[in-house]
Amino acid sequence: MGTFAWPVAGSLFGGFVAAALATVAWRHRGEPAAVPFGALMAALGVWGFSQAALLSTRSLAAGYALDVVAAVTSAQVPPLLLVFVLAYAGRDRWLRPRYLAALWSVPAGFAIVRATAALHGLASVPADATLVTVRGTTAPYVPTGPISDAELVYGYVMIALAYAVLLRFAMTARVVHRRQTAAIAVAATVGLGADVATRFGLHVHPEASLTPLSIPVVGVAIGWALFRYDFLRVSPLAGDLLVDQLPDPVLVVDEGDRIVDHNRTARERFGPDIRGDPLDATAPGLCDALNGDEAYTDRGDGGITYYDPQVTAIEDQHGDQRGRLVVLRDVTGQQRRQDRLEALQSATREFITAESEREIAQLAVSFADRVLDGDAAAVYLAEGDELRPAAVSERLEREYDAAELVVDDPSDPVVRAYETGTATTERRAGDAAAGRQRLAVPLEGHGALTVERGEGAAFPAEDEQFAEILARTTQVALTQIERERELRESRATVERRSEQLEFFNGVLRHTLRNALLVIRGRAEHLREDVDGESAAHLDRIVGWCDDLTELSEKIRAINDTVTASEAERLETIALSDRLRDRAEQVSAARGGVTVDCDVDDGLRVLANELVDDVIDSVVRNAVRHNDADSPRVEIRGRRIADRVRIEVTDNGPGMTDEMKETVFDRDVATSQTAHGFGLYFVSVMMNLYGGTVWFEDNEPRGTVAVMEFRCADRIEAKGTSEPA
Hints:
Number of strands: 19
Oligomer: single chain
Largest sheet: 5 strands, antiparallel
Number of helices: 24
């Protein structure tokens, strides 16, 4: 073959390289752009093999057939290059079947034209093939026609579009993809340069194209770019995300949760040889934390560390997830504060249920020992001029006698904290706890809380804050115990005095009732011996006896109402008929006074039998103080929402604003007789009924007394009252 030995060998070598790359791409056909890359390599391989065979044969028929194969195959390379670039850049929407069909319609047309060349002459026919000798070597040659020029233009247009897609992708891609894109562009330029050189006659034979000879360079360069920067590995895709100097551990894991990269902090935390290890073996439980979006607890040799995993999906240019970037944010401090707050919340619930100062003190010491990282703690409570330990840690019990723990020196920091209300810190000296730091926090009005740490161990600001929170909580609990004790003592005193008052009231009512019966009986006995005007005095005596007896019973009823609970005090009262009866009785008893009554039917309120006296007191007040020439009183009753509103209107002299404010005071209307209890009584009873009473001006003259009761039917609907 002479000088043709190296073009043939080069074409064969290019074909083999292309076939090998196509095989590798097929094995990884699940990866993005692998299939288009394999198809491109397959087309270049066929082109290389067919050119090698063409340069090796002397048969014109075989040469023509091989020339057609090479031409048809070479026509597929530009569109395949464009498809590969579109797939690589993630332009999947241009790879739909209708676009691919349009793209290959032109190469298919070229193939049809070559197959039908005998009909139109646009392409060479077998008869056109000749043997051409160049530089002493002979090989078949098939002249080109117009179809070849059209194929050339179409191919260069496809290549130009491929370069445009690569350029646009490189401008928006990550740094790693820019390097990868540049490698692909350079490889494609090598192949394009070989083709241009062939077109300008830089060849050893008209059928010897330099493009198949460039296949090893083009194919290997593109394959190296893809496999080096990776269809298959995820680490390079995270290179622009991974910052080695981050203070938090950073791990890069692939789709199988195997560590493919890490930063310096992760190496220091988990070990130097973790690359390639399963994530769960390196950090047990981290996979579950990532999948469950939970905090991760690392129980390493240096103690417990809490991490909040921040996960970022690593995606390629096609949007497919290739792995995960895991940043482990150290939240040990936050978790520790949360644990302390939860422990303090739990302790607070126990404080609420504690029944003595000593129990509260023991709870405070237990919490301090458990949470504040102290060596010892104590709660001192004031007893006279001394602060005595109510609860201490076991360490203090071992180191001191009970008497030694009592504090009475005014210069002692514990006493200073108690007296000044300000926390103090000191370094102990001269005793069993020499060198230890002691923090004393005041329990205002009660004593002080102390926490101690080992020699040279200063209290962090956070520990001081939690000690103060614990002290305030302990103080509140101690105050609650003190108030509950005072309340129990006050309740016992009130109950004792109530029993005493009830006893003396009972004795008074019993004695008064018996005395009135005796007086009334003696008056009736004297009636037979008295006549004329003296008999009127006996009538007055009997009348007063009856009034005082009735008053005694009403006072008993009032006393029972005041001391009873609301459920015992209230019942359902039908008020409408009672108001009408009161109006008739007052009108009959007070000649010359007009009493009108305008009351809705069915008014039912929460009250008791004393409501008659309440209404009487208001109505009689309106009648008694009415100085009009034609005194008039009107009683109106309406239901308004969940209230019953009673208005007693008169045309008397009215009240000043000051009188409206003071008329219900206890010292007002002291001239009331047994016929009524006064407006103070009205105010007390309306308050016990859960109602209100006040005075307003009446136009043009007089006063309006307004009483509002609670409706009974609304309360009954809740099951709190029974109808009377």
